[in-house]
Amino acid sequence: MRSRKLLYLDYFASKQELVQHLINQQDNQCYLCMEPFTKGNPPTVDHIFPLSRGGTWAIDNLALAHRVCNQDKDSRVFYEDGTLEPKRRRRKSRYHNRSRNSLLVESLVCYNEYINLRGSF
Ligand SMILES: [Zn+2]
Q: In 10 A of CB 19, how many CB atoms?
């Protein structure tokens, strides 16, 4: 029989106690970049399987990560081999790249026309 997933509040009196436990368990290292936590770059509680995708506050779904690492992971999940799923492409940056490329093409076309024009004089 599968045991019910215990939420962290079943184990710990507060979030602070949870964080202290995880700091010890993770050797004071971020589980995403493996760099240590510092005063200037303190840990945040991350949901390994994101809340937005059905994750819970179960203790085995929680890990500490730097805020930037946490934000970078966003709502991505890990594959079974331990790698993160790729970032979802944002329409904005795709558009940005495309428009930059087309600008480059346009300026090349202009340059070629300019060379052709010069050649005809
Ligand atoms: Zn990190």
A: 19
